[in-house]
Amino acid sequence: MSCKLDESVMYLKGVGPKRAELFEKLGIKTVRDLIYHLPRSYTDYSSPVPILSTEIGEVNVVEAEVVKKSRPAMIRKGMTLYKLLVTDGTDDMSVVIFNSQYMFDSLKEGEKYLLCGKITADGKRREMSSPNILSSAAEDKIRPIYPLTAGLTQSAVTNAVKNALGYALPADLEILPPDILKKTGLMSEIDALKLIHFPKSLKDADPARRRLAFDELLTLRLGMTELRERTRKLSTFSMPKADMSGFINSLPFRLTGAQGRAIAECLEDMKMPTPMNRLILGDVGSGKTAVAAACCYNAAKNGAQAVMMAPTEILAAQHFESLKGFLEPSGVKVGLLTGSLTKKQKAEIYSAAASGELDVIVGTHAVFQEGIEYSRLGLVITDEQHRFGVAQRSALAKKGENPHRLVMSATPIPRTLALMIYGELDISVLDELPAGRKRTETYAVTGKLRSRAFAFVKKELDRGGQAYIVCPAIDEGAANMKNVSEYAEEIASGEFKGYRIGVLHGQMPAAKKDAVMKQFKDHELDILVCTTVIEVGVDVPNATVMVIENADRYGLSQLHQLRGRVGRGERQSYCILITDNLSDESRKRMKVLSSTPDGFEISEADLELRGPGDFFGSAQHGLPPLKIADLASDGELIKLAQKTADSLTDTGRITLPGCEPLRRRVGSLFEKTYD
Ligand code: ADP
Ligand code: MG
After folding, report:
1. Mean pLDDT of the 210-222 span
2. Whose Cα sits closest to atom 10 in ligand 1?
3. To test the ligand 1 pocket, which listed residue (539, 563, 573) has its Cβ within 8 A of the most ligand atoms?
4. Ligand 1 pocket, 259 CB below 6 A?
5. 286 pocket-lining for ligand 1 (C-beta < 6 Å)
6. Which of 55, 153, 360, 666 could bond to 334 as cystine, CB 3.0-4.6 Å?
7. DSSP string of 320-356?
8. 603 CA to middle of ligand 2, Å?
9. Where in the chain is the domain with CATH 1.10.150.20?
10. Can you tell me the distance from the alpha carbon of 270 to that of 405, in angstroms, rounded to the nearest whole number?
């Protein structure tokens, strides 16, 4: 089916081959692409302010009459300056235009115009330079502002979009079947597009945005479902449920109910002739590693190998230790593979992996480097701390014969969001902490109370505990912020003289990091001054207090992760947040942390306060970026999209008749992302 919309923008009136090249830089090839090139914001010419009450330094819209046009002045080669004097009766203002003789010529003395630009002060008079100008008689007073590229002007894009929309027939654009439109009460696609480009008032743009955001969320959700179904079709090792008693008996604790349920769900998946694709969503300390270990055990008992990939060496080493502890008593062999091993060590692991001598290989991305071979890879576990994109996740799955996949979330996120971000996965939620776990008491204080905080830390150290102090990394040490090394030196010769202090930061060689970590773990150090590398770091139950300097620099969820490093043992633990940022937002954030231990609640608050940012940034998940919808503020729309998607699908296929356009949209979304 071809229509005018799928032709090159080159053929639009006023575009041509030259401009078409510029449009291509913006990712716009066809007329349809252009229609979906949405305004970044708008200029509202509908309510000008009197010149006298404009604020210097702000962007303002004024309506004024041209009083006088000065003679153009050549200020240097190729740079001509045009100056005008305008007035609106409250005051005069100079207007400066650079180089655009065309614009200058089009302005007539005695005529009224709307001018939008930043106001500066030129001696005694206000001045506006390079304003956007609209005739007072113009009908459309809301003008779109588009993302541009050098050589394209707002008006060139605006006119091209106008022409493009002229070619669009409702049927060419609508992707929703009529009954869905009716059920959701959303406006038609063509109306939405016309309104979002050229709203009559700023408010008009809202329902238009809503419709387009819905499309985006719906196609994303449908795409994820499809992706999931695609992997479901692949055959793999079917692993009957092993007798788990060997594993259970080697655990130093009793599984929580949530762990038990998650393990049962995983084993149920692994039994199937299609690969497991499951996410373990759980709060810090909820015991995700034990669930992963159970899966490894089941794989091993079925004669398959498991690989567990972590984003950093520190975390890989920790998982290795945990898995070894959980699995080796029952005869499951675990190995560690990281980039920092010697050639000889690596060769040994390689050969043990290839021969099948090792059942479980834990490591960094090295576990999937070329050259490594497994004898029978049946399970791949990834830790999403720093996230591997969807594409990457499936690339690595290819190393085996479609192994089962288990993903461990680093961040507890609200379930609706998880469904969106991890839509291609089934989800098990660990919503229960191991029994007897004490809530870490959290306090926020200003720097003035630092010495009291330190006195408190000393008390913990003196009764045999250990402490973390988190501060900025070496290269982040902005003014008045001490970086980790300076900080450690200072407290070593000051407040904490006589205590054993270690330093840990990301730029240290891996071997050095490991050594320091081991010292801290073995209680050869009392205090670990560290950067956020500790976020994914050691599990030291004897550490009972954490001080976080400049706490306002971190996201809530990150602070929650950090805090999760304490409170891992029997004793009451403490977290002291130090910040001199007393803004409302900072206070609110600190309050959330001190008032709840629930990571799910915290991430929801984080989302509300900060927006998804790079924290949930879809780019990091390898998902198509959301251009219009906002995961933070469109919660209700996300639910609507999910509900609609479910009503349209049956085992991952869009089933309703009349859904061809929607199906095509879903297809092209993922084509672009995974090319
Ligand atoms: P996370 O979900 O943050 O990855 P971990 O798997 O690191 O949590 O577990 C946190 C700590 O709790 C570890 O020391 C682990 O051994 C311990 N743990 C895990 N499950 C239980 C349980 N059911 N009972 C007691 N302790 C547990
Ligand atoms: Mg963990």
Report:
1. 91
2. 285
3. 539
4. yes
5. yes
6. 360
7. HHHHHHHHGGGT--EEEE-TTS-HHHHHHHHHHHHHT
8. 17
9. 1-42+146-168
10. 9
DSSP 250-294: H-SSPPPHHHHHHHHHHHHHHHSSS--EEEEEE-TTS-HHHHHHH
Residue with tokens 């081959």: 17
- Residue nearest ligand 1's atom 23 by CA: 255
Closest CA to 63 of 125, 137, 123, 144: 137
Element housing 590 (H / E): helix 584-595
1 pLDDT higher than 50: no
Every domain range in the chain assigned CATH 2.40.50.140: 47-140
Calculate how far, in angstroms, residue 287's C-alpha sits from the geometric centre of ligand 1. Answer: 4
CA of 606 to the centre of ligand 2 (A): 20
CA of 570 to the centre of ligand 1 (A): 13
- Euclidean distance between CA atoms 125 and 578, whole angstroms: 47
Atom 5 (ligand 1): residue with closest C-alpha? 287
Measure 557 CA to ligand 2 centroid, in angstroms.
14
Rounded CA separation 119/404 (Å): 62
Place of tokens 């099948």: 356
pLDDT at 385: 53
Q: Does the pLDDT of residue 419 top 80, yes or no?
A: no
Residue 674, pLDDT > 50, answer no
Dist CA 363 CA 337 (whole Å): 5
Q: What is the mean pLDDT of residues 563-568?
A: 89
Condensed to tens digits (0 to 9), the pLDDT of residues 509-518 reads 878 888 898 8
pLDDT-derived band at 276, boundaries 50, 70, 90: very high
- Domain span(s) for CATH 3.40.50.300 in the chain: 245-430, 441-596
Distance CA 141, CA 153 (A): 18
At 653 the pLDDT is 77
Determine the pLDDT at residue 596: 92
CATH entry, 47-140, from 3.40.50.920, 3.40.50.300, 3.40.140.80, 2.40.50.140: 2.40.50.140
Residue whose structure tokens are 């288990």: 406
Mean pLDDT along residues 385-406: 63
- Looking at 3.40.50.1000, 3.40.50.300, 3.20.20.70, 1.10.150.20, the CATH number of the domain 1-42+146-168 comes to 1.10.150.20
Pocket test for ligand 1, best of 256, 289, 534 (most atoms within 8 A of CB): 289
Q: What is the residue-averaged pLDDT of the chain? A: 87
With a 6 Å cutoff on the Cβ, whether 561 touches ligand 1 is no
Q: Which ligand is nearest to the CA of 285?
A: 1
- pLDDT confidence band for 623 (50 / 70 / 90): low
- pLDDT tens by residue, 91-125: 999 999 988 888 899 899 999 999 999 999 877 88
pLDDT(657) > 80: no
What's the pLDDT score for residue 341?
87
The DSSP bridge partners found for residue 547 are: 469, 576
- Ligand in closest contact with the CA of 312: 2
How high is the pLDDT of residue 611? 59
The CATH architecture assigned to 441-596 reads 3-Layer(aba) Sandwich (3.40)
Architecture of domain 245-430 in this structure: 3-Layer(aba) Sandwich (3.40)
Q: Residue 285: CB within 6 Å of ligand 1?
A: yes
Q: Report whether residue 579 contacts ligand 1, using a CB cutoff of 6 Å.
A: no
**Of all protein residues, whose CA lies closest to atom 20 belonging to ligand 1?**
287
Q: Is the pLDDT of residue 586 over 80?
A: yes
